[in-house]
Amino acid sequence: MKYDAIMIRYGELTLKGKNRNSFIDTLANNVYQSFLDYHDLQFSKQHDRFYIYLKDSYDIDDIVNRLMQIPGIFNFSLVKKIEKNIDEISNVSLEIIKEIIKDNINIKTFKIKTSRSDKNFPLVSDEINRQVATIILKNTSLNVDVHNPNLLLKIEVRYDAAYIIGQTFEGLKGLPLGSLGKGLLMISGGIDSPVAGYLMMKRGVKIAAIHFSSPPYTSEMAVGKVKTLLKKLAKVQGQIKFINIPFTKLQEKIYEIAKDRYAITIMRRMMYRIADIVAKKENCQCIINGESIGQVASQTLISMDVINNVTNNVIIRPLAIFDKLDIIKIAKNIDTYETSILPYEDCCTIFDPKNPTTKPKLSDCEYYENKFDWQEMINEAISNANIEIIGVI
Helix 20-34 crosses helix 60-67 at what angle (to 10 degrees)? Predict the structure, then answer.
């Protein structure tokens, strides 16, 4: 079956009221940017849908795979445009159904749903449904199920033509990337932070990424692991700016003056101070991390409060109330899990304090921090940052 177009549905965007057109424009631009190498691809943006018009030379599987990576798309369907003739509608519908069920033995039931905007067409929607269903029943082993069908085939009869809507694919949903600004993702290389970045992109937030490395305690393979994770996230965003902060001097000093009990808390405070400065430089409206309440010592509510004290920036924790198994499930779905569990330690795990406090006091943190010139060390770390643009694998 040679389809004529792909119909994209907006989903959540239809609820945006006065801002709706702005969201749709952003989505349309994101779709356009995703297909720049399809030089003659034609688009049509409408109030409730977005169309990509197809040619025989196009790789449909490639187009489908790309669309599935674009936030803001609720779902999309392959569409065949035909003449407004009931015999043509029935025959093409049968051909599409046969193609869909050919490699899918789990499809046992179907339903036809017609919408008829052209009221001059001689048959009403229910009559079209019945005639098309009759042809399918006679020529396949499928049965009709009007309540919970395995396959729903939609027909639209408009003024210009009839449209048969074939296979439908789930989109990422959420909001168009960039429609809600930009955030700085604190990425460690573990399981959680890539998932947090992915969820933020789904909500329309573009990301830059900051990582803290402590050579020689952390290896180049640990940094390479983070880059691989960002390449996987770049399937959604396209390109991600990666800021790698040398953290060794600061980390050594922190463990020297604070010992095990307060080292993690002060280390996180320094990371937030650095992230705050970098976020402003990168025009980010928030800082994003993969913290989950109670998962480790620095993620108790008391710890978070003391750590947050160093910045007035918005801190977003998409995984704050997630169970670890739920986080792992998402990580596997977005293909970051296997990379995240590679045994290359980051600066948060190399020293492994034996007795970190879960109830730090702000006054104690300030007491330890007054023992050294952390501001100068922060400035030095930022000035020596290594910056790269990470693209798709």
Answer: 140
